[in-house]
């Protein structure tokens, strides 16, 4: 239960959710770039790379993708927990509080789908 009967508490929590969302997107984007850059180097290389060299960028990229997906899902769950502690006075009437949560879960699903695709296609 919050001690402030003020809607600014909700908006501060939502800004925090969006900051974590941006962090998750950055991790996912970096993971995608790392994985694809490894593929690019394999295609442009004049010598055949070893299995460990080929797999390194894949696993680092997949790890970053999964880390971004985890950050996205955990931040959505944390925001839902904060919402449960807010009073009715702190949530403006008609304000849709679940949009950011669903977007974060969608990002987590996309990260998981990309990670599975990268591992399966290698």
Overview of this structure, please?
The structure is a single chain. This protein is mainly α and 122 residues long. The chain has one domain. It has helices at residues 8-44, 51-85, 99-121. Helix 1 (8-44) packs antiparallel against helix 2 and helix 1 packs parallel to helix 3 (99-121). It is rod-shaped and about 65 Å long. The termini are far apart. 22% of the residues are buried. The model has no long low-confidence stretch (mean pLDDT 86).
- Outline the low-pLDDT stretches: none
Helical fraction equals over 70%
Report the average pLDDT across residues.
86
What letter string, H or E per element, gives the SSE order?
HHH
Supply the number of structural domains: 1
Q: What is the general shape?
A: rod-shaped
Tell me the number of helical segments per DSSP (H or I, 4 or more residues long): 3
How would a crystallographer describe the biggest sheet?
A: none
